[in-house]
């Protein structure tokens, strides 16, 4: 799933295919065959971060359909930091309802 210009893996309906590695995660909702970005962030362990995220209530509040997860393992982009990727995604998609600008 491309998000901004980055090739995220997913979106996945559960965390089973997501690895406990460093990267950037995107939380999306699927509604009428379209995806809407709810949140984007970074973590040293994306699987654990998503599973225990403090903004889950925000995701639930703004979802239009089923929540899905997409991941970009940042070892694929050694010249960019996780923060740069998150900032790029947030600047590309204005109005992401959950989370804050980095």
Task: Tell me about this structure.
- The chain has 102 residues and is α+β, with helices and mostly antiparallel strands.
- The chain has a single domain, classed as GIY-YIG endonuclease.
- It is built from three helices and six strands.
- Strands 3-6-4-5 form a four-stranded antiparallel beta sheet, with helices on both faces.
Keywords:
single chain; 102 residues; alpha+beta; GIY-YIG endonuclease; four-stranded antiparallel sheet; two-stranded antiparallel ribbon; 34% strand
Q: Taking all residues together, what is the mean pLDDT?
A: 91
User: Low-confidence runs (pLDDT<50, min 5 residues)?
Assistant: none
**Number of H- or I-type helical stretches:** 3
Assign the CATH class.
Alpha Beta
Distance between the termini: 22 Å
Fraction in beta strands: 25-35%
User: What sequence of helices (H) and strands (E) makes up the elements?
Assistant: EEEEEHHEH
Q: Report the helical percentage.
A: 10-25%
Main beta sheet strand tally, sense and closure: 4 strands, antiparallel
* Order of strands, widest sheet: 3-6-4-5
Question: What is the CATH-assigned architecture?
Answer: 3-Layer(aba) Sandwich
CATH topology: GIY-YIG endonuclease
Q: What is the strand tally?
A: 6
How many domains make up the coordinates? 1
What overall form do the CA principal axes indicate? Answer: globular
- Structural class comes to alpha+beta
If you compute it from the alpha carbons, what radius of gyration comes out, rounded to the nearest whole angstrom?
12 Å
């Amino acid at each position: 799933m491309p998000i901004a210009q980055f090739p995220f893996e997913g979106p996945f309906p559960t965390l089973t295919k997501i690895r406990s590695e460093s990267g950037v995660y995107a939380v999306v909702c699927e509604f009428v065959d379209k995806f809407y970005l709810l949140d984007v962030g970074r973590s040293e362990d994306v699987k654990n971060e998503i599973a225990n995220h403090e903004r889950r209530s925000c995701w639930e509040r703004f979802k239009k359909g089923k929540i899905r997860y997409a991941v970009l393992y940042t070892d694929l982009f050694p010249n960019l930091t996780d923060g740069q990727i998150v900032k790029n995604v947030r600047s590309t998609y204005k109005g992401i309802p959950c989370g804050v600008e980095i």
